[in-house]
Amino acid sequence: MSDCLFCRMVAGEIPADVVHETDRTLAFRDINPQAPTHVLVIPKDHHATAGLLVGADPQLLVDVVAAAHAVAVQEGLATEDGSEPGYRIVTNTGPQAGQTVHHLHLHVLGGRPMRWPPG
Ligand code: 5GP
Ligand code: ZN
Protein backbone atom coordinates (compact mmCIF):
# COMPACT_ATOMS: atom_id res chain seq x y z
CA MET A 1 0.00 0.00 0.00
CA SER A 2 1.73 3.14 -1.21
CA ASP A 3 0.04 5.39 1.37
CA CYS A 4 1.00 3.20 4.36
CA LEU A 5 3.99 4.44 6.40
CA PHE A 6 5.18 0.96 7.35
CA CYS A 7 4.75 -0.45 3.84
CA ARG A 8 6.93 2.42 2.65
CA MET A 9 9.55 1.44 5.24
CA VAL A 10 9.45 -2.15 4.00
CA ALA A 11 9.93 -0.82 0.46
CA GLY A 12 12.94 1.25 1.61
CA GLU A 13 11.25 4.54 0.67
CA ILE A 14 11.41 5.85 4.26
CA PRO A 15 14.48 5.18 6.42
CA ALA A 16 14.18 2.84 9.39
CA ASP A 17 16.64 1.90 12.14
CA VAL A 18 16.31 -1.84 11.46
CA VAL A 19 17.38 -4.19 14.26
CA HIS A 20 16.03 -7.51 12.96
CA GLU A 21 14.76 -8.83 9.64
CA THR A 22 13.47 -12.10 8.23
CA ASP A 23 12.04 -12.87 4.81
CA ARG A 24 8.56 -11.97 6.09
CA THR A 25 9.11 -9.59 9.04
CA LEU A 26 10.90 -6.34 9.80
CA ALA A 27 11.78 -4.82 13.19
CA PHE A 28 12.96 -1.25 13.71
CA ARG A 29 13.31 1.23 16.57
CA ASP A 30 10.31 3.42 17.36
CA ILE A 31 10.90 7.07 16.48
CA ASN A 32 9.40 8.14 19.85
CA PRO A 33 10.62 5.51 22.33
CA GLN A 34 8.61 4.95 25.50
CA ALA A 35 11.24 2.72 27.15
CA PRO A 36 15.01 2.13 26.82
CA THR A 37 14.14 -0.59 24.29
CA HIS A 38 11.16 0.22 22.06
CA VAL A 39 11.11 -1.73 18.81
CA LEU A 40 8.25 -2.17 16.36
CA VAL A 41 7.89 -5.59 14.71
CA ILE A 42 5.79 -5.80 11.56
CA PRO A 43 4.85 -8.27 8.86
CA LYS A 44 6.24 -7.12 5.51
CA ASP A 45 2.81 -7.76 3.98
CA HIS A 46 0.14 -5.21 4.81
CA HIS A 47 -2.45 -6.34 7.37
CA ALA A 48 -4.19 -3.74 9.53
CA THR A 49 -4.54 -5.70 12.78
CA ALA A 50 -3.64 -9.01 14.41
CA GLY A 51 -7.28 -10.06 14.20
CA LEU A 52 -7.31 -9.61 10.44
CA LEU A 53 -3.91 -11.27 10.01
CA VAL A 54 -4.85 -14.37 11.97
CA GLY A 55 -7.70 -14.99 9.54
CA ALA A 56 -5.66 -14.23 6.44
CA ASP A 57 -2.26 -15.79 7.19
CA PRO A 58 -1.94 -17.34 10.66
CA GLN A 59 1.64 -18.51 10.11
CA LEU A 60 2.67 -14.94 9.48
CA LEU A 61 1.30 -13.93 12.89
CA VAL A 62 3.42 -16.69 14.42
CA ASP A 63 6.41 -15.35 12.51
CA VAL A 64 5.80 -11.82 13.85
CA VAL A 65 5.58 -13.06 17.45
CA ALA A 66 8.73 -15.16 16.97
CA ALA A 67 10.52 -12.11 15.58
CA ALA A 68 9.40 -10.07 18.61
CA HIS A 69 10.92 -12.64 20.95
CA ALA A 70 14.11 -12.73 18.88
CA VAL A 71 14.34 -8.94 19.21
CA ALA A 72 13.88 -9.23 22.99
CA VAL A 73 16.70 -11.79 23.16
CA GLN A 74 18.91 -9.63 20.96
CA GLU A 75 18.22 -6.61 23.19
CA GLY A 76 19.10 -8.54 26.36
CA LEU A 77 15.52 -8.60 27.65
CA ALA A 78 15.12 -12.40 27.64
CA THR A 79 16.95 -15.59 26.86
CA GLU A 80 15.89 -18.08 24.20
CA ASP A 81 14.24 -20.26 26.82
CA GLY A 82 13.57 -17.74 29.57
CA SER A 83 11.84 -14.47 30.38
CA GLU A 84 14.41 -12.56 32.46
CA PRO A 85 14.59 -9.62 32.90
CA GLY A 86 11.41 -9.39 30.86
CA TYR A 87 9.67 -7.32 28.24
CA ARG A 88 6.20 -6.35 27.09
CA ILE A 89 4.52 -6.88 23.73
CA VAL A 90 1.70 -4.44 22.95
CA THR A 91 -0.44 -4.11 19.86
CA ASN A 92 -2.87 -1.22 19.92
CA THR A 93 -5.97 -2.13 17.92
CA GLY A 94 -8.47 0.48 16.85
CA PRO A 95 -9.08 4.09 17.86
CA GLN A 96 -9.92 3.58 21.52
CA ALA A 97 -6.65 1.72 22.02
CA GLY A 98 -4.72 4.49 20.26
CA GLN A 99 -3.72 2.74 17.04
CA THR A 100 -2.27 5.43 14.79
CA VAL A 101 -0.58 3.34 12.07
CA HIS A 102 -2.96 0.89 10.44
CA HIS A 103 -0.36 -1.74 9.58
CA LEU A 104 -0.06 -4.38 12.31
CA HIS A 105 2.89 -3.75 14.59
CA LEU A 106 3.96 -5.29 17.86
CA HIS A 107 5.60 -2.84 20.23
CA VAL A 108 8.44 -4.62 22.07
CA LEU A 109 9.14 -2.61 25.22
CA GLY A 110 11.71 -3.23 27.93
CA GLY A 111 14.73 -2.04 29.83
CA ARG A 112 12.74 -0.62 32.75
CA PRO A 113 10.04 -1.95 35.08
CA MET A 114 6.67 -1.92 33.32
CA ARG A 115 3.64 -0.47 35.09
CA TRP A 116 0.38 -2.37 35.32
CA PRO A 117 -2.39 -1.61 34.53
CA PRO A 118 -1.27 0.33 31.45
CA GLY A 119 -2.81 3.72 30.80
P1 5GP B 1 0.44 2.95 17.43
O1 5GP B 1 0.11 4.30 17.99
O2 5GP B 1 -0.26 2.73 16.10
O3 5GP B 1 0.25 1.80 18.37
O4 5GP B 1 2.01 2.96 17.17
C1 5GP B 1 2.59 3.63 16.10
C2 5GP B 1 4.04 3.85 16.48
O5 5GP B 1 4.75 4.22 15.33
C3 5GP B 1 4.23 4.97 17.51
O6 5GP B 1 4.86 4.44 18.67
C4 5GP B 1 5.10 5.98 16.78
O7 5GP B 1 6.07 6.57 17.61
C5 5GP B 1 5.73 5.14 15.69
N1 5GP B 1 6.09 5.88 14.50
C6 5GP B 1 5.31 6.81 13.86
N2 5GP B 1 5.95 7.28 12.79
C7 5GP B 1 7.17 6.67 12.77
C8 5GP B 1 8.29 6.75 11.89
O8 5GP B 1 8.31 7.49 10.90
N3 5GP B 1 9.37 5.95 12.18
C9 5GP B 1 9.38 5.12 13.26
N4 5GP B 1 10.48 4.38 13.46
N5 5GP B 1 8.33 5.01 14.10
C10 5GP B 1 7.25 5.77 13.84
ZN1 ZN C 1 1.19 -1.26 5.30
Describe the model:
The chain has 119 residues and is an alpha+beta fold. It has one domain: 2-Layer Sandwich (HIT family, subunit A), CATH 3.30.428.10. Helices cover 25% and strands 21% of the residues. The chain has three helices and five strands, in the order H-E-E-E-H-H-E-E. Strand 2 and strand 3 form a beta hairpin. Helix 2 packs across helix 3. The model has no long low-confidence stretch (mean pLDDT 97). Bound molecules: guanosine-5'-monophosphate and zinc ion. Zinc ion binds next to helix 1.
Descriptive keywords:
single chain, about 120 residues, alpha+beta, HIT family, subunit A, 5-stranded antiparallel β-sheet, 3 helices, 5 strands, binds guanosine-5'-monophosphate, binds zinc ion
Describe the structure in brief:
By secondary structure, this protein is an alpha+beta fold. It has a single domain (5-110), classed as HIT family, subunit A (2-Layer Sandwich). 25% of the residues lie in helices and 21% in strands.
Name the hetero compounds present: guanosine-5'-monophosphate, zinc ion
Tell me the distance between the termini: 31 Å
Radius of gyration: 14 Å
How many domains comprise the coordinates? 1
Number of helices: 3
Instruction: Find the structural class using helix and strand composition.
Output: alpha+beta
Low-confidence stretches: none
Q: How much helical structure, as a percent, in the residues?
A: 25-40%
Large-scale geometry = globular
* Main β sheet profile: 5 strands, antiparallel
Strand content: 15-25%
Strand arrangement in the largest pleated sheet: 1-2-3-5-4
The CATH class name reads Alpha Beta
Give the integer mean of the pLDDT values: 97
Q: Could you say what the CATH architecture is?
A: 2-Layer Sandwich
CATH superfamily: HIT-like
Give the beta-strand count: 5
**Order of H and E elements:** HEEEHHEE
CATH topology tier name: HIT family, subunit A
